[in-house]
Write a structure and sequence with these properties.
heterodimer; A: about 600 residues; B: alpha/beta; Rossmann fold; 2 domains; five-stranded parallel β-sheet; 13 helices; about 50% helix; globular
């Protein structure tokens, strides 16, 4: 049972494992949401476009092509929202995809950082540019103020210097070349030198003007630097990288998905094959079951058949035991009858010799005197005398009588045994005939004498007026022999108490007789008792009993319409009681009756 | 008739007529005692020196084998013969192993056979009780040390049995093994063998003939036979013709076999030292059996004879 459980557990675990692997594989190959991926791609594309347009807008703002800063500021919220969307979509799509996410997220972060820098730079550019534009717009009017305030004496030189500063500065703002900065500085220095010689009010105006021009140059320089920084800010490249990585990972994803799909196919195929194998096994075992069933049915039939044979062979075995017993029974008288006759044959020789010698002696005596040869007569007389002494001296004649009597006794014994054999089998009588129970018991005892001799004492407590019964004598005798044999075998070989078998007969009611066979043997143990009438049940060693004896006895008594009862006490002995009707009675055929007719077993 | 005194024979049988008959038959040749039970027989033995005891097997109180076992124990010089019509395998083996019987006779008997057998037994029995001539070869005590220790010959064609026998004996005795009669003869010629452990059939051939020939020529070679379910008549023939000393039933039980072989080895040494004792191992004379002994066995015997002389002379 334990092994069974263990096996079931193992089977369950294996099943669960297989299912788990299948679920894992299905998950690995679950379809990628291509729309999501497409959205990410398009987001990236949009961002890139917006970024490019933005760059253009910035340039346009710088060159003044754009009248306002709105185009520069307007992409900001769009970029921000797209950026958020991208981030959430990316996280959604790539999260849980292992290394892919780890490779993409840094790129996204990088882009976002760059974009943040760009926004900041553009902000700074915006403010710089507005300062520049305001300064630049104000510069001509500042120049006019300087000229208006300047003394007329110096007017030409001043105009020339102020114009030069104005022109140089405007040229620089128009084409911001590094070389032009020196010229502007030069012009401003020249103007400041002129201012020293001029009245304070004028000089002050000139200083403001110069500072203004310098601010323009500085802002212009700052703007240039910012633009340069903007230009080197690789947002577009970051976006490209991001897009490339996305594409690459997507490709990888597809490839790996394809691989897993193959694995899934292979796994499913293997499972199918296994399933097929199990199905085949099932079919095979069903086929085996059918075949075994067929064989069982056949051997059951054979068994039934062989049971019939066994019943027959039990009869033969009982017969064999009986024959062996009888052979031994006959053997002893036969031994001394044979010996006796052989001795007699030897003994006859001197007697015959005596007879011959006496005849010769008598002939001599009867001869007339003249014909008698004295010497010859003497020889014959001596011979006769010697024979006589030999025969009488060896008590041959006494012994012969005794030996002959013994021999005849032996022959009588043998013929008695033969008579009993005939009585026992009753083959010379009709199958059902008058049967004197006591005669049957006696002839059975004689047959079992070999078994009983020297070991068991027989006691008889027989009813005087037991009527004869109508039965099959040989069968009833078989039952007697069987029970008596069992009784003898139940006597332990070594014990102080001598074995006793008591035979008891009595009338039972009006139409039955009761025969009891009681032994003082070892009794029948309680666990054995219910089985004693079962066919093939035996407690004897293999080869000693077929286990059919009592089973057949039970059947015989049942067929006679009688009953067989057992009363036993271990260590004390057993009584088998047989109840037989006086006349033949139809054995009850119905199943109910047969069940009710089971042997009655009593254990004391 | 050569004996100055008649041999004394005790017949035991519960059948009065058998006893009478035997008395009549042998009264003139021997001094006959009779008993109708084992107990009675023991009583007689206690008071009379008996040369031969002839007992039936099935008797009330005590079986023949039980009686002969007692006799073997207390009066080992009395030669024991079982005369019975009851051939139960267990009893037959018991008669050899426990009773060490000289002969097993069956009822009804053959007149000539019983006479020869009893004559044989009487001669051997009288020899046992005779006190005088001990035929120990001079200087045998010194020789015993020099002579090679006798080994055991195992004649068996089953490897399993062989392993078991070796396991049972290997430690103390030299075991030679042959799986055929020819091989056995070679080994017997080459080595000093005291005890032979042998199967009833080896390589499909009956060993009875070999054993009879060997025992007839070399009574001091003691045989232990391994048996399973041998035919009872076959066992009786082996007892009488091959004088099997012990039967060890199969499957082999090492302890039992070891005991049997060491007893046999003791018996062998006793035979070497006491010529009277050898007579107990006399085989029955089988008319016409000497002739068809295969030439192989005869040659082997010749070679053995030479070796044996060397060994025991």
């Amino acid at each position: 049972m334990i092994t069974m459980n263990k096996r079931t557990w193992v089977n369950l675990l294996v099943g669960a494992g297989l299912a788990l692997v299948l679920a894992l594989l299905v998950d690995k190959t679950s379809d990628v949401n291509h729309a999501e991926y497409g959205e990410i791609s398009s987001l990236l594309r949009q961002l890139k476009q917006i970024d490019a347009e933005w760059n253009v807008d910035v340039l346009r703002s710088k060159t003044g092509l754009n009248a306002s800063y709105d185009p520069v500021a307007s992409p900001l919220p769009v970029i921000e929202s797209l950026d958020d969307l991208l981030r959430s979509k990316t996280n959604l799509f790539w999260s849980g995809r292992g290394d892919s996410g780890a490779r993409i997220v840094p790129l996204l972060d990088n882009y976002r950082q760059l974009m943040a820098s760009k926004v900041e730079l553009i902000d700074r550019f915006k403010s710089q540019h507005s300062i520049l534009r305001n300064s630049t717009r104000y510069l001509p009017s500042a120049a006019a103020e300087v000229l208006a305030a300047g003394p007329a004496a110096e007017r030409d030189g001043l105009i020339q210097a102020v114009d030069r500063v104005l022109v140089d500065t405007l040229v620089y703002t128009d084409t911001p070349d590094a070389g032009l900065v020196a010229r502007v500085d030069d012009s401003i220095a020249h103007l400041r030198k002129l201012a020293k010689a001029l009245p304070d009010a004028t000089a002050e105006r000139i200083a403001g003007y110069a500072a203004h021009a310098e601010t323009v140059v500085r802002q212009q320089q700052l703007g240039d630097r910012l633009l340069k920084q903007l230009a080197v800010l690789p947002t577009a490249r970051a976006l490209d990288e991001l897009a490339d990585m996305n594409a690459l990972e997507h490709e990888k994803l597809l490839v790996s998905q394809q691989t897993w799909r193959w694995v899934l196919v292979a796994y499913s195929a293997a499972l199918l094959v296994a399933l097929g194998w199990f199905a085949w096994r099932l079919v095979a075992s069903y086929r085996l079951l059918a075949r075994v069933n067929l064989e069982l049915t056949r051997s059951h039939d054979e068994l039934k058949e062989s049971q019939v044979h066994l019943v027959q062979s039990e009869k033969m075995s009982a017969l064999g035991q009986m024959v062996a017993g009888i052979a031994h029974e006959i053997n002893t008288p036969l031994a001394y009858v044979k010996g006796t006759f052989e001795v007699l044959r030897e003994q006859v020789v001197p007697v015959a010799q005596l007879a011959a010698n006496s005849v010769q002696f008598a002939q001599m005596l009867h001869l007339p005197n003249e014909q008698r040869d004295r010497a010859q007569l003497q020889t014959v007389a001596n011979r006769f005398d010697k024979s006589t002494r030999e025969v009488s001296g060896s008590r041959v004649m006494d012994e012969m009588g005794q030996l002959l009597a013994d021999g005849i006794h032996g022959i009588e014994q043998i013929s008695e045994i033969v008579t009993n054999l005939k009585n026992f089998s009753r083959l010379d009588r009709a199958k059902v005939s008058e049967f004197a129970v006591h005669e049957g018991l006696e002839s059975t005892l004689l047959l079992a004498r070999n078994l009983l001799k020297n070991t068991v004492e027989i006691r008889r407590e027989l009813a005087f007026d037991l009527p004869k019964i109508q039965c099959s004598p040989s069968q009833i005798n078989q039952v007697f022999l069987n029970i008596i044999t069992n009784a003898v075998h139940a006597m332990p070989a070594e014990r102080a108490e001598p074995g006793v078998i008591t035979l008891r007969t009595a009338r039972e009611g009006d139409d039955m007789v009761r025969i009891e066979i009681q032994d003082n043997g070892s009794g029948i143990p309680a666990n054995v008792l219910p089985k004693i009438f079962d066919p093939f049940y035996t407690t004897k060693p293999i080869g000693k009993g077929t286990g059919m004896g009592l089973s057949i006895s039970f059947k015989i008594i049942q067929e006679h319409g009688g009953k067989i009862l057992v009363d036993t006490e271990p260590g004390v002995g057993t009584v088998f009681s047989i109840l037989l009707p006086l006349g033949p009675r139809e054995p009850e055929k119905s199943d109910k009756a047969a069940k009710a007719d089971k042997p009655v077993l009593l254990a004391a | 008739m050569t004996a100055p005194q008649k041999a004394r024979i005790l017949f035991v049988d519960d059948e009065e007529r058998i006893i009478n008959l035997l008395r009549v038959m042998f009264r003139n040749t021997y001094e006959v005692f009779t008993a109708s039970s084992g107990a009675q027989a023991l009583e007689i033995l206690r008071h009379e020196p008996i040369d031969v005891i002839v007992s039936d097997q099935r008797m009330p109180g005590m079986t023949g084998v039980q009686l002969l076992a007692k006799v073997c124990q207390h009066w080992p010089h009395t030669v024991r013969v079982l005369l019975t019509g009851y051939a139960d395998q267990e009893a037959i083996l018991g008669s050899v192993n426990d009773g060490q019987i000289f002969r097993y006779l069956t009822k009804p008997w053959d007149q000539d056979a019983i006479r020869t057998t009893l004559a044989d037994a009487a001669e051997v029995g009288q020899m046992q009780s005779r006190p005088a001539p001990i035929v120990t070869p001079p200087g045998s005590a010194g020789r015993a040390a020099a002579a090679p220790v006798a080994g055991v010959l195992l004649l068996d064609d089953s490897e399993d049995d062989c392993a078991l026998v070796r396991q049972a004996l290997g430690a103390e005795l030299t075991v030679y093994r042959a799986d055929s009669v020819a091989g056995a003869l070679q080994l017997l010629a080459r080595h000093a063998i005291g005890v032979m452990v042998c199967e009833a059939r080896v390589g499909g051939a009956d060993t009875g003939q070999l054993l009879h020939a060997l025992k007839t020529h070399f009574p001091a070679l003691i045989t232990v036979m391994l048996t399973d379910h041998t035919d009872a008549d076959e066992v009786v023939r082996l007892i009488n013709q091959a004088r099997i000393y012990r039967f060890a039933s199969k499957p082999i039980r090492p302890a039992v076999l070891s005991l049997a072989v060491s007893a046999a080895m003791k018996e062998h040494l006793r035979c070497l030292g006491d010529a009277r004792h050898v007579a107990l191992h006399r085989t029955v004379r089988v008319a016409g059996l000497d002739a068809p002994v295969p030439s192989g066995i005869l040659q082997g015997l010749k070679a053995m004879t030479a070796r044996w002389r060397l060994f025991s002379a």
